[in-house]
Design goal:
This protein has 152 residues and is α+β, with helices and mostly antiparallel strands. Helices cover 48% and strands 14% of the residues. It has helices at residues 9-20, 25-32, 36-43, 51-61, 65-75, 91-113, and strands spanning 116-118, 124-131, 136-143, 146-148. The chain has a two-stranded antiparallel sheet. Strands 2-3 form a two-stranded antiparallel sheet. Helix 2 packs across helix 3 (36-43).
């Protein structure tokens, strides 16, 4: 994927077929036996599918397994740069919230877990809708491996 092409051929095909078939990420994730956030990340070029994932996607979306495999291979590794996200109405406030509460979150984590680091490659993200009577809220759960710093 390069700057002039927003999505790889694989991602473009997956997103097109998802919209055309009116499927949700939750429905596709259930078919793949993955979490819906991971599945969405795959569709946006942020995760790597296994051969089994490609086969299942091809089956679900009536695509050629061979072409989809070639498309994923030619796309290169998944995008890991999280640099500029702009003022997206979901990502922006999420980033701002993390920045605002980062010192407090860090202090509570260190008090409870000891001094260490969160492993981004081991992070799982779950998104849930929370009904509160008058409106809907959102719960975002981040679950990750925590590695304590060593003393020597």
């Amino acid at each position: 994927m390069n700057e002039s092409e927003p999505f790889s051929a694989a991602c473009a095909k997956l997103l097109h077929e998802k919209m055309r078939r009116k499927l949700t990420f939750a429905e596709i994730a259930q078919y793949l036996k993955h979490d819906e956030v991971w599945t969405a990340a795959l569709f946006y070029g942020r995760a790597t599918p296994t051969h089994k994932d490609i086969r299942l996607l091809a089956e679900l979306l009536s695509l050629s397994v061979e072409t989809l495999e070639e498309d994923f291979c030619s796309a290169g590794p998944p995008v890991r740069d999280v640099g500029h996200v702009g003022r997206d109405p979901i990502v922006g406030p999420l980033r701002d919230t993390l920045a605002l509460y980062a010192p407090a979150i860090r202090s509570v984590v260190v008090e409870n877990m000891g001094d260490g680091a969160i492993s981004a490659p081991h992070t799982k993200v779950h998104v849930e809708r929370v009904e509160n009577g008058r409106s809907s809220d959102i719960r975002i759960v981040l679950e990750s491996k925590y590695v304590q710093y060593q003393s020597w």
